[in-house]
Design a protein that fits this description.
The complex is a heterodimer. By secondary structure, chain A is α/β, with parallel strands linked by helices. Chain A has two domains: 160 residues, P-loop containing nucleotide triphosphate hydrolases (Rossmann fold, 3-Layer(aba) Sandwich), CATH 3.40.50.300; 68 residues, no CATH class. Chain A has nine helices and ten strands. In chain A, the strands form two sheets. A six-stranded mixed beta sheet of chain A has the order 6-7-8-3-9-10, with helices on both faces. Chain A has a four-stranded antiparallel beta sheet with strand order 2-1-4-5. Chain A is globular, with a radius of gyration of 19 Å. The termini of chain A are far apart. In chain A, 47% of the residues are buried. Chain B is mainly α. Chain B folds into three domains: 33 residues; 224 residues, no CATH class; 239 residues, no CATH class. Chain B is built from 26 helices and no strands. In chain B, helix 4 crosses helix 8 and helix 17 packs across helix 22. Chain B is globular and about 75 Å long. Classes of the chains: A alpha/beta, B mainly alpha. At the A-B interface, helix 2, strand 6, helix 3 and helix 4 of A face helix 17 and helix 21 of B.
Chain lengths: 252, 581
Amino acid sequence: MIEIISLVKKFGELIAVNDINLVVPRGEFFAVLGPNAAGKTTTIKILTGLMKPTSGAARVAGYDVQTHPLDARRRMAYVPDFPFLYEKLTPWEFFRFTGQLFQMEDRHMEEAARALIARFNLEDYLRKPIEGLSYGTRQRVAIASALLHDPEVFVIDEPMVGLDPHHARVVKDILKERSRAGMTVFVSTHQLSVAEEMADRIGIIHQGRLIAVGTREELRRQSGTDGALEHTFLALTAQEANFTEERAVAKS
Amino acid sequence: MNGATMPRSFTSWPLLLLMRANLLQSWRKLKAVRDQSRLLTSIIGLFVAGYLVLSFMLFYKGLKFISTFPGLGELLVERLIFLLFAFLFVLLLFSNLVIGYTNFFRNRETNFLLTLPVPAQTIYRWKFLESSLLASWAFLFLIAPLLAAYGLTKHAPWHFYVVTPSLVGMFIVLPAVAGSWCAVNLGRMLDRRTFQVMVIVIAGLMLISARYWWKAEPVDDETLETRVLAVLDRLLMKTKFAQFPLLPSYWLSSSVLQWLEGGMRSAGFFMLVLLSHVMFFGFLSFTRMGQQFYDAASIVQSRASVFGQWEWFRTWRSRRRAFHYSPGFLEHAFGLLRWVRKDVRALLVKDLRMFWRDTTQWGQTLMLFGLLGVYVINLRHFTQQLTNPFWVHLVSYLNLGACSLNLATLTTRFVYPQFSLEGKRLWIIGMAPLGIMRVVRAKFALATCGSLCVTLSLIWLSCHMLRMPLDRTLYFAAAITVMTFTLNALAVGLGVLYPNLREDNPGKIVSGFGGTFCLVLSFLYIVSSVTLLAIGSPWARFGQQSPELMFGTLAGFATLSVTMGWMPLKLGLRKVTSIEM
C-alpha cells in the first residue's frame, strides 16, 4: 500500500533522506522512530506529495505521488504534528468542508461525521469557532476530519500530542480498528510506548537512513538488547552513530 | 533575568524594569521591520512625511482662507480650536477605554505579570502608561500639522511651539485616567443587570439628545447669500458646548489661544488649572487603582458569560446546544451553482466564511468603500457646481482612480496573502484531490467576483450622481471591470510567486517584499491606466479627440492590463505546479 523506493532528498550539501527503501502492506500499522532531525518529517512530506524527492519514488495505493498526485491523495489522509485549522470555522463546518473536498456524498459524509463526533466527544464544540477550542480538542477535530473520508492510507505525525489519556486511548483504538479493517497506518512518533503498544512493525530512521525495520522482537535481536523498546532504540541509534563516526575517520 | 546582574535601579523599581524590557522589545521589532524590507520602510516613511506635509499645507491654506473673512475669521478659527480639543477629548476617552480594557484584561503580558511577584499597582501603572501611549499617539500625529499651521498663520513666537506640545502632553493624561478608570469598572460590572440596563438607557438618551441637538436645519440659497450673520449665529450656537468652562478641553484651548495672543497671565492660569487636575487625578490613578484592577482582573477571569444573568440568554443558549447538523445558508446558496465542482464550491464557501468572520477584513473593506460611497452619494450636493463639462470629466476620472486605489489597498491586504495563508493548512487543501492550481484559480475567481460587485456599484453610482449618459456609464463600467480583473490577478499571481508559507499573520505576510511590490505595482498600474484612459477618452475636449490617439491610448491600457494582470497570474499558476511546501 505504501512503497518507498530508493528515496533521496538533499538540501544543498545536507542529505536529509538517504536511499530509503520500504514497503508497508495494506492493513499494517507501521511506526517510524528516530532522533530529532533524523529525516522522519521529510520522508512523510515526500510520501504525502508536499515535497519532491531528489531521486527515487514514493507510491501510495499503487499511485506514484509525483506523477499521479490526485489519485494518491484521494486515497490517503495526513495529519501533521501541529495541525493548523481554519480558526474562524466551526468544527462542523470544517468537517463538511473536508468531506466536500473529497467529493463525499452528503448523506455518507454526515453519517461518517456523526460517528466520529460521538467517538471523539465533540458534540459540545460543533458550533464553537475553532479558534476558541483547546489544543487537545483541535487535535481531535483534525484527526476526526482526516478519518472522515475513510482513507486507505493514514499518515500521522505525533498523534498523541495534546491529547488527554482518555482521548489518546480513543485515537489508539480507532487507528487499530481501522488498521484491522484494511487501512494502512504510518505513524511518526517520539513516544516509544505508542510504537511499542500499537505497531505491527517499527522502522528506525537515523541521519536520513532507515537503519532498522522489523517487529519489536526482530529489532531487539538486531540490537542485541532485552527489555523495553527504549533500550533497543538507544542501542541501534548509538551503533549507527559509532559506525558513521568510524566511516568518517576512515575516510579522512 | 538575573537580579544580581541588573543595575540596582531596575531591580528595586519593577516599573522601570518592565519599561526597559518593553522598550528593548519595541526597538528590536522596529529594527526587524527595517531589516525585513527596506522598500517597505521607505514607503512607510514616504507616506508619513507626505501626510505631514500635505495636511500642513491644506490646514495652512484653509486657516488663511478663513481668516480673510472680515470680523468673522478670528471667531471661526477660535471656535474651531475649541471644537478640535473638545472632540479630541471625547475620542481619546473612547480610545483609552477600548485599548485600556484590552490591555488590562485581554493581554498575555498582563496575565503573565499577574503570576509574578510584581505588585498589582505596578502592573496597573505599566499597563496604564502603555494604553495611554497606544491610545493617544495617532491623534497627536493627526492634529500636529493643524496646530503648526495655526501657529504659522498667526505668526506665533518660537515658544508657542514648545508650550503647545507640553500642554497637549498634560491634557492627554486626563482622558487616559478617565478611560482606564472606566475600563477597570467596566471589567468589574459588565455582567451586572443594573449596569447593563443603565448603559443602554444612557447611550439611548445620549443618541436622542445628539440627534435633536445636531439635527440638520434647512437653509435656502437666498439666506446663505444675504443673511450670512444669521446663519453663522445659528452655527455658533450649535457649537457653543465646546466653550463650557468645566471641560478640560476648554482649559487647554484657552491656554493655547491666550498664549498666542500674548495674554500670559490668563494662559498661565488655565495652564495651572490643567496641571492641578492632571496631578490630582494622575496621583489618584497611580496610587489607588491597583487593588481595583486586581479585583476586576479576577472577576473577568472567573466570568463565564456577560449575559448569563438574563433568562432569554440562557434559553437561547440551551436552544443552540441542540445541534441540527444543518449545512448553513452559504452552502445552500452556493449549491445553486451546479456547474461548479463540489470541492471548489466548498473552498469558496470556506473563504467567504473566513472573510465574513474576520472583522478586520470586512471592517476595513466596509470602511474604505463606505467612505467612498458616502462621498459619491454626496456628489449630488455639488451638481450645481458640476455643470461645467471639464469638471464632470475630471471628477469622473478621479472617482475611477479613487475606486481602483481602494481596491488595490484591499487586494494587497487581503487577496495577496491568501495563498500564503494556506501554507500551514496544506495538510488539508494540499492533501485533497482538488489540485493546488484549482485552488489558486478559485481564489482568483472569488476575489474578482466579490470586488466587481463593489467596484461596479460604486462606478455606476458615481456616473449616476454626475448625471452621465448611458454610453459614458458603460465606458467607465468596462474600465473598472478590466482594472478589477487586473488588480486581483496581480495580487493572486504575486501571492503565489512570493509566498510566505511559514507565517500565519496576514499583516506580516503583506509587509514582506512581495506585498510591498504588489502595492507599488498596483499603484503604478492605476496611475498609468487612469492617465491613459483620461487622455484617450472619447469625451475629452468635448468630442474633438483624434481617433488615432483614442485607439492608441485604449490599446495601451489593454496591453498594460494584460501585462500587469495576466502575466503574473500565468507565472504564478506555472510556479504552483512545482512548488514545494
